[in-house]
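During the no-cost extension, the postdoctoral fellow (Dr. R.K.) reprocessed legacy sequence entries with the updated structure-token encoder. One reprocessed record is reproduced below for audit purposes.
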Amino acid sequence: MKKLIVVLFCCLNIIAIAQQTNPNQSLKSPEVLPGNKVAFRIYAPNAKNVTLRSDDKWDKIEFNKDEKGVWEGIWNNVESGAYRYHFIVDGLPVYDPMEPMAKEKTAVLLMTSGDEVIAMKDNVPHGAIAQRYYYSKTVNKTRRMHVWTPAGYEKSKDKLPVLYLVHGGGDVDNAWTTVGCAGNILDNLLAEGKIEPMLVVMPNGTIQQKTETMLEKVPIFNEDLMINIIPFVESNYNVRADAKHRAIMGLSFGGLETLEAATSHPEMFDYVVALSSGWWISDEWQKERGWMDDKAKRVARMKEIGADFNKSVKLMYFTQGGSEDLAYANGHETMKIFDEAGITYKYSESPGGHTWKVWRKNLNDILPLLFK
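Re-encoded structure tokens follow.
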């Protein structure tokens, strides 16, 4: 009989589905306005009444709905401080879906019998997952990463290898530690002796800076990784700081960031893994949205570094979630470029599409290949 384990980061948002299709994707809430005012907004076109509630005593905030279905309320004379709040929409508590940290409060369902590699097992030593903050000179702001250290790391004097594990588009650095179940997978594989003790750094691959196209965000993350993230890790943790003990793995958009890092700095990583990813080269849907990559540029670069890449990169691995994976076509286009450059790589498919089911399996299967 399977156990049903529910990890709740917040109450289920009743307007999550509406968010996907509403006309207010650029809606801001909360928004700090001049004169110590704060605007709260929520898209709820069918609601009859919206109020705001907090555990602090606020002045009553009046909400009004515009013709698009957006409710807005203004809080005046706001003092400096931190305030917990939520909306009451027709009597139902709703967390602000546009608040910057809202995605981290999404409910996660973990369905397990307790034996799977994704389960938290009682008889297994557990590592620690820390939130670390660093100043990024690349984007001129403080950014966050999650770092997994194996059980016993605090008292160990051993220098460890490092895996940089990047999430996909639309997520942030907590994705692998929540729905990705990375902590449990690492704990269980290490307890079974299937992987080497390592440090796993999960950076925030989402770049908030405005760019004309999404692809322009990729080199920005690459610079952040090289100039800020890797130096921060190697100066704050007891790790080995050479390519032989450094790996990078990323899924979907994070796979593009992984390929960017590996092809611009092939001397940095001995292990490179792209999950459900590849350069967008021939997809019309992406072309219309400004995602298209420069194929000639990629071909020239790979031929330029091909021989050195083969020598310096011990493992290059591509995966796909079967033919139903939305990255299937561009992934195979990318592998053709590697073929033309004479670069060797491994490839595997796991049916399931472009989903976390596939990527958790990929992580479980590929981790034992690292640092051997």
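The chain has two domains: 16-104, 118-369. The CA atoms of residues 135 and 141 lie 6 Å apart. The remaining legacy entries will be reprocessed before the final report is submitted.
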